Amino acid sequence: MYHFDYREAPKGVKPTRGDFARIARYLLPAWRPSVLILGCILVTSLLGLIPPLLIREIIDRAIPQKDGALLTWHVAGMIAAPLISGLIGVWMNYLVTVMSQGVMFDLRDEMYGKLLRQSLRFFTNIKSGEILSRIQNDVGGVQGVVSGTLVSLATNSLVVVTTLVVLFRMDWRLSLIAVGVLPLFILPTRRVGQIRSRLSSQTQERLAEMTSTVQETLSVSGFLLARLFGAQAHEGNRFREKAGAVRELQIRQSMAGRWFLMWLLMFASIGPALIYLFGGYESIAGRITVGTIVAFVTYLGRLYGPASALVNVHVDIMSAVALFRRIFEYLDLPVEVADPKNPTRLPHPRGELRFEAVWMGYEEGRWTLEDVSFEALPGKMVALVGPSGAGKTTLTYLASRLYDPGRGRVTFDGVDLRALALDDLSRYTAKVTQETTLFHASVEENLRYAKPDATPAELERACRLAQIQDVIENLPQGLATVVGERGYKLSGGEKQRLAIARVVLRDPRLLILDEATSSLDSRSEALIQQALEPLLEGRTSLVIAHRLSTILRADMILVMERGRIVERGVHTELLARGGLYSRLYEQQFSGAAVST
């Protein structure tokens, strides 16, 4: 039987060629902006070399020779070089943003599509806040990888290489001194990078937990639950605990290595001091000019900063790979309920549903349904009766292929559901439950979810059949009225009738109905029963029965207990047997029978 723990994630595994190859597949489509970005980096790196050379010329030639024109041109060059570099940098930032946003769009689009293809099992095993964190935070972090890690790697590498070339051409002895100081930067910087990488990973995990908490508690249902149970203080404390963990980690991340950085500032002065010391003696001896010394010291800033950044490039790369791996975990989720490669088409669906020796379980080694077999003929009603936990709802999940059976098969018009396209199956079947799902959108948008191209006449007919037209006409903006989060602006009965109107628009051949109306007032219950009459007419229906009238009109009653069908037949037959159905009838329906 299929089982997968969606919460497990490989950690601490070194990057492989496969990781880099897969990441490259998402970056390669952006090769055109990548080439332009590299060109911009190269040009700005070369432009950054100009000002120190101009300083040398000013000190060594323009001032000693009292050449005002040469001085003016060199000063103009010192202003023009960073100005041109800045303009190119603006354009490069635009290209980097376009590239990173394109990669993020592709990843989000692929991840969202993959999640939509998951079975109900996935969404019952994972918090919605964690899904939101993956799509928002993890994919959002890709921008930092592209604009930070990759661009920084290219920029710093080119700056270091071009600077070293110029330095060694100016004076190889001073260059050796400058390079000899680099280990003082490299060792502490590497240690700081490792600490920050670990804290960054922990921060991402705590952010996901905090996002999940916010998602749960600040939804309409979460707020109502906390309000009705007086749990605001508890939820506030829970949020503060998780937000506090994020705060502490981010403080530690910000402060990590501050002592090292303090020493780095001291080491940063050693390089220039040594250059001035050795270069000063050389200048006194007439072997080097003062302008060369000043230019050399100016170049040190272009050498030490980028070199220190490159020390942690492996940490940045591992962090980037870890980020992509979290994304790939979702992209690699197995699709339990998948579309067939060559789906069977039903030109004229009739609505015959058949279960053939079906076994199904939510957990490995535990069956929720065991050896279930029955048929629902076109146009007939099959009622499901049984105690709570008997497997009735699970059976309806299988009928609409929210899950696949572990053994046996479920067929529609003689075709295994696994051989039908999911889009086709969704047109053939529809389900109405007591807990209605509505989007935070207008009434019309919620209705058109079933049939986007529905005409105004079709919308009106569906609403009238569902006994909801009069309610819609009295709304402030009619069909354009926004129903609110999960439809909380409507009453329970109104939401239920709106859901029925949506199913009427869908016009399914198989209707799956959880007829629980006990939480509604008598008038709403009566209106919903009237709305169901035209919906049930001429369709195959699989109904979890909560009303005596449903049981009495059923063509077949299936009595379930502990995942098995223990009795089947019509009302009078089952009542005469004196079995489980008879006992359930006495407990649940005898009062209703007397009242009628």
Mean pLDDT across every amino acid position: 83
Tell me how many strands there are: 10
Approximately what portion of the residues adopt beta-strand conformation?
Answer: 5-15%
Question: How large is the count of helical segments?
Answer: 23
Structural class by SSE content: alpha/beta
Distance between the termini: 47 Å
The rough form would be described as elongated
Q: Which regions have little confidence, pLDDT < 50, spanning 5+ residues?
A: 1-12
Largest sheet: 6 strands, mixed
Percent range of helical residues: 55-70%
The largest beta-sheet arranges its strands as 6-7-8-3-9-10
Multimerization state: single chain
Rg for CA atoms: 35 Å
Structural description of this entry:
The strands form 2 sheets. Strands 6-7-8-3-9-10 form a 6-stranded mixed beta sheet, with helices on both faces. The chain has a 4-stranded antiparallel beta sheet with strand order 2-1-4-5, with helices on one face. It contains 23 helices and 10 strands. The chain has helices spanning 17-27, 31-48, 50-62, 68-116, 120-124, 128-170, 172-180, 182-217, 220-228, 232-255, 258-284, 290-311, 313-331, 392-399, 422-428, 443-448, 456-465, 469-473, 492-506, 522-536, 548-553, 571-577, 580-595; strands at residues 353-360, 369-376, 381-385, 407-412, 415-416, 429-432, 510-514, 540-544, 556-561, 564-569. The longest helix has 49 residues, at 68-116. A hairpin with a 2-residue loop joins β9 (556-561) and β10. The protein starts with 16 loop residues before the first helix and ends with a helix. The radius of gyration is 35 Å and the shape is elongated. It has 596 residues and is of the alpha/beta class.
